[in-house]
Each structure stands twice: as structure tokens, then as C-alpha cells.
């Protein structure tokens, strides 16, 4: 291995470590990310596929997403470290999404101790509308 390829490998490894460490960040236990499900619909559709029968509060969900999910799922939900979520509602129900956010899955950490139940519902309903 040449000296340049060793440096390149080192740089890639450092970037990977930084990207992976960004996953799971967010709100500390006992705090609220600021998002709430106030029962309004800000332009999102839920297609009848939501966790608690609630409506989609896109503004609150986007705020929760930006604070907790962007590091792995990207600004546009296209993925990166985590999977693409742009059409996750076509594959998973809001209840399945809620279970994944709450308990984690694969490389995704559980958020049950970082987000309130209302925030998880808001985020789940919003993601379920992505079809």
C-alpha cells in the first residue's frame, strides 16, 4: 500500500466515524425537542395510515426530524448512514415506524428515552405520509 492510499484510507475512516457518531444524537433524556402534535394539518397527508389516528403536523415533525434524524437520514430524507425515508410510508405503517423510532432497529438507536411519546407520534405520522 502506498503512502497516499494509507492517508486516503485514514481520511475515509475518520469521516465514517464522524458520520456514525452523528446518529443517535439529539435531545437529552428528560427534555422535549419542542415538537408537539397539536392536531393540525400543515399540508401533509396521512392517507389513513397513522399511529394514533392523529393528523400530520408537518412543521412540528420537521423540527423534530432536524434535531434528531438529519445526521443519518439527510436533510431531504435520502439517507446516507441510515436508510432512505423519502417513501417510507409506502413500505411501513405509522405503527411500524413508531416502533422503530421508539425501540430502534439494526443500526438505529432507540429514541424512547430521548423523545416524548407525543413527539414520536408526530414524527411517525409525518413519516408515514411520505409515499
TrEMBL record:
<dbReference type="InterPro" id="IPR012218">
    <property type="entry name" value="Cyt_c_BACSU-c550-type"/>
</dbReference>
<dbReference type="GO" id="GO:0016020">
    <property type="term" value="C:membrane"/>
</dbReference>
<feature type="binding site" description="axial binding residue">
    <location>
        <position position="73"/>
    </location>
    <ligand>
        <name>heme c</name>
    </ligand>
</feature>
<keyword id="KW-0249">Electron transport</keyword>
<keyword id="KW-0408">Iron</keyword>
<dbReference type="InterPro" id="IPR009056">
    <property type="entry name" value="Cyt_c-like_dom"/>
</dbReference>
<keyword id="KW-0813">Transport</keyword>
<dbReference type="InterPro" id="IPR036909">
    <property type="entry name" value="Cyt_c-like_dom_sf"/>
</dbReference>
<feature type="binding site" description="axial binding residue">
    <location>
        <position position="108"/>
    </location>
    <ligand>
        <name>heme c</name>
    </ligand>
</feature>
<keyword id="KW-0349">Heme</keyword>
<dbReference type="GO" id="GO:0020037">
    <property type="term" value="F:heme binding"/>
</dbReference>
<dbReference type="GO" id="GO:0005506">
    <property type="term" value="F:iron ion binding"/>
</dbReference>
<dbReference type="GO" id="GO:0009055">
    <property type="term" value="F:electron transfer activity"/>
</dbReference>
<dbReference type="InterPro" id="IPR051811">
    <property type="entry name" value="Cytochrome_c550/c551-like"/>
</dbReference>
<protein>
    <submittedName>
        <fullName>Cytochrome c</fullName>
    </submittedName>
</protein>
<feature type="domain" description="Cytochrome c">
    <location>
        <begin position="56"/>
        <end position="131"/>
    </location>
</feature>
<feature type="binding site" description="covalent">
    <location>
        <position position="72"/>
    </location>
    <ligand>
        <name>heme c</name>
    </ligand>
</feature>
<dbReference type="Pfam" id="PF13442">
    <property type="entry name" value="Cytochrome_CBB3"/>
</dbReference>
<keyword id="KW-0479">Metal-binding</keyword>
<feature type="binding site" description="covalent">
    <location>
        <position position="69"/>
    </location>
    <ligand>
        <name>heme c</name>
    </ligand>
</feature>
Amino acid at each position: 500500500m502506498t503512502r497516499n492510499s494509507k492517508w486516503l484510507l485514514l481520511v475515509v475512516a475518520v469521516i465514517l466515524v464522524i458520520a456514525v457518531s452523528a446518529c443517535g444524537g439529539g435531545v437529552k433524556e428528560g427534555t422535549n425537542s419542542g415538537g408537539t402534535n397539536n392536531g393540525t394539518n400543515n399540508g401533509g397527508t396521512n392517507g389513513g395510515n397513522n399511529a394514533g389516528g392523529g393528523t400530520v403536523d408537518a412543521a412540528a415533525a420537521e423540527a423534530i426530524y432536524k434535531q434528531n434524524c438529519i445526521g443519518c437520514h439527510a436533510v431531504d430524507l435520502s439517507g446516507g448512514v441510515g436508510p432512505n425515508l423519502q417513501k417510507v410510508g409506502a413500505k411501513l405503517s405509522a405503527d411500524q415506524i413508531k416502533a422503530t423510532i421508539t425501540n430502534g432497529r439494526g443500526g438505529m438507536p432507540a429514541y424512547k428515552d430521548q423523545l416524548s411519546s407525543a413527539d414520536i407520534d408526530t414524527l411517525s405520522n409525518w413519516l408515514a405520509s411520505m409515499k
